[in-house]
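User: For documentation purposes, I need each entry recorded in a consistent format: the amino acid sequence on its own, followed directly by the corresponding structure tokens. There are two entries in this batch. Please keep commentary to a minimum and don't merge the entries.

Assistant: Recorded as requested. Entry 1:
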Amino acid sequence: MTSLLIIVVLVLLGIAIWQLTKIFDLTQVGTGNANDGDSEVANDKDNNVNGYVMFAFLGFIYVFTLYSLLKWGHLVLGTPASEHGPEYDNLMAISMGLIFFVQTVTQFLLHYFAFKYRGKQGKVAFYFADNDKLEFIWTIIPVIVLAGLILYGLYAWTNIMFIDEEKEDTIFVEVYAKQFSWEVRYAGEDNVLGKANVRYIEGVNTLGVDMSDPNAQDDITSTELHLPKGKQVVFKFRSQDVLHSAYFPHFRAQMNVVPGMVTEFAFTPTITTEEMRQDPKIMKKVANINEIRSKKSADLVADGKTALDPYNFDYLLLCNKICGMSHYNMQMKVVVEDDADFKKWLSGKETLAAAVKKSKEEAAAAAAEPAIEAAPAKPADSAAATKPDSTMVAQVIKK
């Protein structure tokens, strides 16, 4: 690291010296012959060269853009797995299409005019103060385009962020963030999450649920997020320590997780994990990843290390805020399944109240064990043997 800093300092020092020499040369402009080959004043040849270089750079921009689309275009997420996902992708596609169109046109005009109106010996630029028609055109067109895009974006945003908590079959899930892992809590049969606060964190109650709250008695915790297909899921987000961001890439959903407050988001999953694994785009990505892992495994085995396991697609919940040293590894598996499978999985989970009760009973039993061992029960005959005999006492007194 020190060597890298030294190199950076030396490079910056060299740039500074070079800039100082350029400034010195500029101060000498006008002291020599303008037609001199060492003059800093551009001539027709310099302007022509710069004009053609501008066109070459324009070609590089277009070629590299097309190459990027062909080379890395397959890395996009692909099929959205939530109800609002298609609308989100449509808004993104419109925005990117407009950006691409405007960038193509404006970059061409910029480089074309830089060449066409390059400096020439004896040619003077025409100057006019204003042109109302041009001002109107290049003002009204962006206003109309941006207004339409913003209005459509607000419409899409309102639909995505609207949460109907009274909707039938809605389930409520709390997502709890902490450095560097996730935990979830499901509302039980009452479909109401119990109150929680970090002050209540103790033992197995790692989410700080208020166990005196009646609504918390049937809450269920898990380190794996299961979601039912076709049902609205309302997420309540909390953070134990720093700012996190719950990011569900395939569901097109993200929400900041802020310490000291509860944020929320809702979406309806539309594609199960097994169905997404059969998606052609996902299958192609998995095959590509496994090809890379296979090559890496060959190198590991050659070095006497363990080969990598084959990759299998899973939905993931990621953290999209740089929250610390292990931020990159803060993720949780998300399983989308049919409603029947989801209910079966949930019914097999222990409630938090039962887990807390069991933990307290085990702690009490563990605390009682040493006391029992320290005072073992004495046999009956032993007690009798230690009891003083009355005859013996009488003899002692007589003596």
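Entry 2:
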Amino acid sequence: MSVSVIRRIVASPKKALAGVAVAAATTGMVLAAAPAQAATPTAASSAKSIAHKMIPDAAQFNAFSKIVEHESGWNVSATNSSSGAYGLVQALPGSKMATAGSDWKTNPKTQIKWGLDYMNSRYGSPAGAWNFWQANGWY
């Protein structure tokens, strides 16, 4: 490729990405994207810290954490492409979490509050929800 061709490709982000993909394919490289739902380590750590403060009992926190890890990987904006379930606890529909706060789309504390309320009302506790999750692969 000439420098002018590369310059034109780089000037357009879509062309740049296509150019990189073509170049990679030509040389036998495989491009892999990170999962779209992956939470940043800082965001996940922050959400876990919030949950730990809201759930001081170690056993209940561990059960809650296991569910959230499986459901969303601690990604506050995780969306299930099949069902549309949303957030840390994969509420379906996600808008249900508005009962815990209007900032439900982005605030981990609001999502954790809603998730705890759900787990407590439906399963008695996060540990009860985790027991159900282990038996069924969902909760």
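Summary note for entry 2:
Helices lie at 3-11, 13-26, 41-54, 58-72, 108-123, 126-136.
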